Amino acid sequence: xxxxxxxxxxxxxxxxxxxxxxxxxxxxxxxxxxxxxxxxxxxxxxxxxxxxxxxxxxxxxxxxxxxxxxxxxxxxxxxxxxxxxxxxxxxxxxxxxxxxxxxxxxxxxxxxxxxxxxxxxxxxxxxxxxxxxxxxxxxxxxxxxxxxxxxxxxxxxxxxxxxxxxxxxxxxxxxxxxxxxxxxxxxxxxxxxxxxxxxxxxxxxxxxxxxxxxxxxx
Length: 218
Fold this sequence. Notes:
Layout: E1 2-6, E2 9-14, E3 18-21, H1 27-38, H2 42-48, H3 54-72, E4 75-80, E5 83-91, H4 111-115, H5 118-132, E6 141-148, H6 157-168, E7 175-179, H7 182-189, E8 194-200, E9 207-213
Parallel strand pairs: 6-7
Antiparallel strand pairs: 1-2, 3-4, 4-5, 5-6, 7-9, 8-9
């Protein structure tokens, strides 16, 4: 049974694993399941190309972001028999957290430079700049990472993770998500998001779609 919870209690029940807020002790599990799930996402294909250590590179790339979101209390974890099988990490204004040691989160902005050659870093950062143009100008909650293990997809687990996160967004904030999977557009539209634009990330990069969900109150 999926029990989707927010800080105030149960928000929904579906067949499947439990969906709950990730705790600091869940950080390795959240990072690992997201790396597994996103290793072959079109965005990661574009960033890292074909390499034997793709999953490890994706895990390193996600490290600082996932750590911050878990410590901020804005990451949702799907757990089945004590194993993480999915996660959704949000950036919500006013919830930013420092690193686990209380200092600046490392590896920080230099992560790409540790994982990619310099010319590739420039190309990827230019693509990211184009992607940021899809973001709303006003304060908003961003669903930054969503991933479900391949053998658990198609059973409503991704929807449960998204809906739990949306329920936790403050009422006055709109929500936004970017995706490079064309099939995800209809998935998010079914959950109250509307298509807000698309942009190609560099001359050979994937097309990124931006979708927004209005605030529950003005």
